[in-house]
Design a protein that fits this description.
With 370 residues, this protein is of the alpha+beta class. Among the domains are: 118 residues, Roll (Nuclear Transport Factor 2, Chain: A), CATH 3.10.450.540; 115 residues, Nuclear Transport Factor 2, Chain: A (Roll). Helices cover 43% and strands 29% of the residues. The chain is built from 8 helices and 12 strands. The strands form 3 sheets. Strands 1, 2, 3, 4 and 5 form a 5-stranded antiparallel beta sheet that branches. A hairpin with a 2-residue loop joins strand 2 and strand 3. The longest helix has 42 residues. It is flat and about 150 Å long. It starts with a helix and ends with a helix. Pfam families: TpcC.
Length: 370
Amino acid sequence: MAKESKTKVLFKGLKRLSDDEKEKAEQKKLERKNKKLNDFTPKGYRAKRMGVYTFWTLFIGMFLFVGLLVVANATSNAEEVEKVEINKVTSQEAVVFAQNFVEAYFTWSATDEGIVARQNELKRYLATGLDSNAGLVVDGLIWSSSYVNSEVRDVQALDEEVGQITFYVKSKLTKGEQEQVSEKYFVVPVAYDGKTFGVYELPKYTHFEEHTTIKSVSNKRLKSVSSEETTTLNSFIETFFKTYADGEREQLNYLLSKSGSIEGLNGTFSIKELNQVEVFKDEDNDTYIAFVEVTLVDPKTEISTKSNYQLTMTKSNDKYIVKAMDDLTGKEIKSKTAEEISKELLIETQAIEEADAKAAATPVSAKSEQ
């Protein structure tokens, strides 16, 4: 019985081994079949697959290229903005520095102690190696100076770190009992090293043209308007300005092409009168342009002032509305000729000479009576 059991166990073991071998054989056969299927490539498959790879490669490459361009442009723009920001020689800080230097420069006492005090004050501004008196010749100096005021006339950047600031300077010179006022145009050379400002070379005097060279500012492409239309427009303009000065916001919005585009004076001024109204038509934009001189009056003080306005108007649903106030696009600036400037200066000089001659001819007794 025991022998039979051992035989059964052995038989079962051999059968299991045989089944395992069969299973392995089937597995190998299946793997060979799958390999054949995998190795089989339909006609054109490789070309299609290569095309897909090529397309996506080019697409991704193009995307990366565009992205790099955008980043490069953004970096370039950022650098330009940064350059503007770091150009400190034209900044308000540079102007204040230069103005403080001007005050120190034009302040001295014609004594040894006064000259030393001025030198000590100027040390804060002058670059290393510059004349401690900043160019002022102190040998034989007999006039003392006190700074009165100064005004900026020009600011120029010669480089990112170097500039020139021009001032109109008024100072008072004294010598004993004598006094005289000095008015000069003074150029301060300013440098910036990333930390502080400094005067990098000796300052100098210059001349600055105070008389404007602008002759007139006019608007291009304007045509005259018929008298009938002008009358209607003048009436609308008068209504607009009265509403602009004293009306409620809703009333003003009714006269505008876009609500809220113009803020009224909210009663701070009233319209006294329209002194002058000139209306033209801009045919290129199908709008009307009005140049208006208005007299405004402060209701609290009754002080009157004259102001110029420019209205841009259009017609909508048979009524006029205001598109903009003081839209200055399309302006044409005309400059005076050299001959016109010379003529104005000559007239001004002659007037001064005549006034001086008249004052000199007036008897002392008459002056005291005046």
